[in-house]
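The instructor's notes for this session suggest beginning with a concrete chain rather than abstract definitions. Hand out the sequence below and ask the class to guess, before any prediction is shown, which regions might be ordered.
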Amino acid sequence: MKKKNSAKPDKEEVRKKKSGLRENIEAILVAIVLALFIRTFVIQAFKIPSGSMKQTLLIGDHILVNKFIYGVKIPFSQTTIIPIKNPKRGDIIVFKFPEDPSKDFIKRVIGVAGDVIEVRDKKVYVNHTLLNHDYGIHTDPNIFSAVIQPRDNFGQVVVPEHSLFVMGDNRDQSYDSRFWGFVDLKAVKGKALIIYWSWDKEDFGVRWKRIGQILK
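After discussion, reveal the predicted structure:
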């Protein structure tokens, strides 16, 4: 007996399958390009690894950073091609760490170009006026002289042009401008916007109340 030949695929069916595969690949490529565009120019996610910004930001907070708000930069460059505005006092910013640009730091802007900054016995003065705020905290009652370290007594210094003076909200546990100097405006990556996820590693649980908080 003759064996039956297996049915050959219909040409139209093959064409439709190839067309469908091409459409799926194109959709994936478009999604990837769009995601890269958003990450490069608009919004980027960051995870908080340290407690230098407590209680505003906790270890395990995941935040979205607005990269567009301060201007559009050339990818893989610090050159701004479309300036919009500069960071202002009180902004929480992400920037390339001056001592190691491969690392990203997050701090709060305390002073902008031309401001006079001074710290006396843990109190911060900007342009000779005491900085009144409710986000800076102190956890160590000890006060060190400037001879020992600049944490509690620092300055006076004038913020140079195109620069920022930044500090962590957890003032006694923050490695910031008091220790390593100013942030160049070119190094700023964006402004912290919102907490979209928060995981407490110690209690192994989600901090539901923190999710969705707008950062101020």
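Then share the key points. The mean pLDDT is 87. The domain at 45-210 is CATH 2.10.109.10 (Umud Fragment, subunit A).
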